[in-house]
Design brief:
The protein is an alpha/beta fold. It is built from 6 helices and 9 strands; from the N terminus they run H-H-E-E-E-H-E-E-H-H-E-E-E-E-H. The N and C termini lie far apart (38 Å).
């Protein structure tokens, strides 16, 4: 179901709860210009509360609740066997991670990419993938989040975050996914500040935006 349709058909309690949550929180960055009305977008945008989900980091064993991260955080959605856009999305966040480390902000931000391929992306594979992508897991600010099942991945990634993914037919090399490319930047209060809807996000802009949230 379309994410915004889901919110609207979920009952008045959901709408009121969301509204109250947003009214108590403020953004730091100015609103981005949109080519289309944000109300027609399936993913969360500026000023909206990040969808609240709790997901495990299979490498550390930590359970991460999106609404309780407590520091600015960047999210993206990926699968580790991707050979097209995902390495760019993960590589961009890795470069932002390195940039904020250079400005001594590494302990005041988090990077939380969410896989939608839990069947293959277990802890061992994700740790291996971190090495392939030169992600610094020792910094303490990066966690690969893994829904517990394929069904849970669809609920979290598509229904809650509005990121569509569709598995392709399996070949001798395995299966792939066609999917939305999205990176979200969320402030310490759990409010979305930026939705970068592109397969090649500008790492310098994300770094600048994240450092503005740190203050």
């Amino acid at each position: 179901m379309h994410r915004r349709a889901l919110l609207r058909t979920g009952g008045a309690g959901i709408i009121l709860g969301l509204s109250g949550c947003l009214s108590a929180r403020e953004t730091v960055l100015d609103r981005q210009p949109y080519e289309t009305d944000p109300e027609n977008l399936p993913y969360p945008t500026w000023g909206e509360a990040v969808p609240e989900v709790t997901l495990p980091d299979p490498i550390s064993g930590e359970q991460v609740t999106t609404s309780a991260v407590g520091v600015p955080a960047a999210y993206t959605f990926f699968f580790s066997h991707c050979m097209s856009v995902c390495p760019i999305l993960i590589g961009t966040l890795r470069n932002v991670q390195a940039s904020v480390a250079g400005s001594n902000h590494q302990e005041r931000v988090r990077f939380l990419p969410i896989t939608f391929d839990p069947a293959r992306d277990d802890g061992h594979r994700l740790e291996e993938y971190a090495g392939e992508m030169n992600v610094d897991l020792t910094a303490g600010n990066w966690a690969f989040l893994r829904p517990e099942s394929v069904g849970r991945a669809e609920t979290v990634v598509t229904e809650r975050f509005g990121v569509v993914f569709e598995r392709t037919e399996e070949t001798d090399e395995g299966y792939m996914f066609a999917h939305t490319a999205l990176t979200l930047l969320v402030n310490a209060e759990g409010v979305v500040e930026r939705a970068y809807r592109t397969g090649s996000p500008d790492e310098r802009q994300i770094t600048a935006d994240m450092e503005a949230l740190v203050g």
